[in-house]
Amino acid sequence: MRALLDVILLALQLYTWIIIAAAVFSWLIAFNVVNTRNQFVGMIGEALWRMTEPALRPIRQVLPNFGGIDISPIVLLLIIFFIQRVIVLYLYPAVF
């Protein structure tokens, strides 16, 4: 059981970094630092979008419109941090 919880925590931590990378990449695109017409840059952007969009879309539907500011990655990160805390504080002690 503990090995399964460790894998879940590792996956959540990896997904956290993917969300951060997608947010930074979107800023780089928005400020024209990277060129999306470059094939490699486009592939990275598409991969990050495909990995994060299924989790961010339901959050965007619930949140009100803040103009041009998208806070759905922040909300998703808070949800992930909450899940990690629940696993560490409440499920780990039950394993031992």
Ordered list of secondary-structure elements with their pairings:
Elements: H1 2-30, H2 39-62, H3 72-95
Helix pairs in contact: 1-2, 1-3, 2-3
Task: Give a structural overview.
80% of the residues lie in helices and 0% in strands. The model has no long low-confidence stretch (mean pLDDT 93). α1 packs antiparallel against α3 (72-95) and α2 packs across α3 (72-95). The longest helix is centred in the first third of the chain and has 29 residues, at 2-30. The relative contact order is 0.15. It has one domain (2-90). It starts with a helix and ends with a helix. It is an all-alpha fold. The chain has helices at residues 2-30, 39-62, 72-95. It is globular and about 50 Å long.
- Coarse shape: globular
* Count of DSSP-assigned helices: 3
Main β-sheet, in a few words?
A: none
Provide the helix percentage: over 70%
Multimeric status of the protein: single chain
Q: What's the end-to-end separation, in Å? A: 10 Å
Overview features:
96 residues; mainly alpha; 3 helices
Characterize this entry briefly.
The protein contains three helices and no strands. With 96 residues, the chain is mainly α. The model has no long low-confidence stretch (mean pLDDT 93).
